[in-house]
Amino acid sequence: MTIELHPIRAPQFTVVSHGARAWAVADAMGVIVQGSVTRFRQVAMRRRDELQREDDRKARRGERPCMCCGAVFASQGIHNRLCPHCRIRATALPEAARPQLPRGGRA
């Protein structure tokens, strides 16, 4: 039995029914993606997967090691470098205990 410690990323694209006999790919806002309407659900599912891979690549989403504890987690992008556990721990510290970083990026 495997226990997953990190949340699963929400997909950015879904396959939706489009009319009586058609399928389409919709983005996270529910808008039909241009050029994605087809009669075949499998074709729409492949297109959805292609769009999701491209979106993940652009956002640099994927598995990434935590900078604090080293655990691998599902990162939402280049800005997301702490696993959920370490992020919660860091925000739970009182202000006086948080490290003070110099402004401008230089020590």
Describe what this molecule looks like in 3D.
By secondary structure, the protein is α+β, with helices and mostly antiparallel strands. It folds into two domains: 12-59, no CATH class; 62-97, no CATH class. It has two helices and four strands; from the N terminus they run E-E-H-E-E-H. It has helices at 41-59, 84-92; strands spanning 14-17, 23-26, 62-65, 72-75.
Supply database-style keywords.
alpha+beta, two-stranded antiparallel sheet, 4 strands, two-stranded antiparallel ribbon, single chain, 15% strand
Total count of helical runs of at least 4 residues:
2
Distance between the termini: 47 Å
Q: What is the ordering of alpha helices and beta strands?
A: EEHEEH
Net shape: elongated
The secondary-structure class comes to alpha+beta
Describe the structure in brief.
With 107 residues, this protein is α+β, with helices and mostly antiparallel strands. 26% of the residues lie in helices and 15% in strands.
